[in-house]
Amino acid sequence: MLSKKIRFFITLSLLPIVFFSFWINDSYAVQQKISIHLNGEQKTGWDPQFINGRVYVPVKLIAESLGSKVSWDNNKKAVDINSDIKMIASIPEEEIYLYALNKNNNMYKDLIVSINGVKKVFNWETITKIEDLPELHYLDLNNDQKKELVIILSKGHGTGFSNKTIHIVNPENLTEYHIENPLDIIKNNVTTKIISDTEVEIKIGETISNIKLEETPIKLSKLFPESISEISYGNLVYYEISNHTIKAIVGVEGDYLKYIGNIIIEYDFKDGKFKMKNISFKKTSVTN
Question: Copper amine oxidase-like N-terminal domain: from which residue to which, for each copy (predicted)?
Answer without folding.
Answer: 46-98
